[in-house]
Amino acid sequence: MNPLIGLIEYKDDFRVSAADVPGIIKGASEGRGRGLDFLRHIERTKALMYIVDIAGVDGRCPVNDLKILVDEIANYGDGHLLERPALVVANKIDLFEDAEEYSEILLQLYQVIEDTELNVDINDVVEISAACGHGLQHLSRIMRQTVKRGHRDYHSI
Predict the structure, then answer these.
(1) Please, what are the domains in the chain?
(2) What is the pLDDT of residues 30-82, one digit of tens each?
(3) Distance (Å, rounded) from C-alpha 52 to C-alpha 113?
(4) Is residue 116's pLDDT more than 60?
(5) How many CB atoms lie within 10 A of CB 23?
(6) Taking CA atoms, which of 8, 43, 45, 108 is between 20 and 30 Å from 21?
């Protein structure tokens, strides 16, 4: 697997290059899997976006997934990647029927952010459904703001 690279172009010619970096697993910062290769790709970014499957498809826990991502980013090199502006995206919100469970998981994600040194504005937790298109315009606006926080040139990352 290789990172997937894409370009987001806004109407005013502002551009964001985006890299979808798969494979950040527990132990990635120590060389497990292709973790070091993927983390090296992340070093070239100006901002980070942590996407978690809030519905826990395949039995995964979104809170643990976020903790693992943050831990691996923190343990890579000197931990400088945690200083990058970031946002957290809660995907697959359309798969929830239990509003109470959904709210509890969101609160736990907020707690992970508070407990870590992520450079995340708490308003940058974006709830989306990529499958249904819910929240994608809002995500686009927040992505732009996050990239601007991390880049002086503001034309691309």
Answers:
(1) 47-150 (3.40.50.300)
(2) 776 666 777 777 887 888 999 999 999 888 899 999 999 899 888 888 888 88
(3) 13
(4) yes
(5) 15
(6) 108
**Would you state the pLDDT for residue 101?**
93
C-alpha closest to that of 82 among 119, 29, 37: 119
